[in-house]
Amino acid sequence: MKRIFYVVASSQFISSITDNALLIASIALLLHMSEPSWFSPALKIFFVIPYVIFAPFVGAFADSRPKGQVMLVSNILKTGGCILIMYQYFQLDKQATGPIENQIA
Question: pTM score > 0.90 for this model?
Fold first, then answer.
């Protein structure tokens, strides 16, 4: 098989792992925030709904562009989502611990 096949296959594999990592990080954030137990299944549903809603549009976009460009755009969007989750986590952590002056005393 050609080398490009292995590059695309491995990038799709890594992309699917990051999808699941993003979901797990979101669930961990919910647990950290002490949200009700029904939030976790709701979050899983809200991760699936965009796949169903946007599938026709993303399919047309993916067919009109080179595979590498589509992977790049999707990974940039996932990275943005990860950054937002990390920002939210550190904001919650900062609120929980308070200012540094209170911790030193």
Answer: no
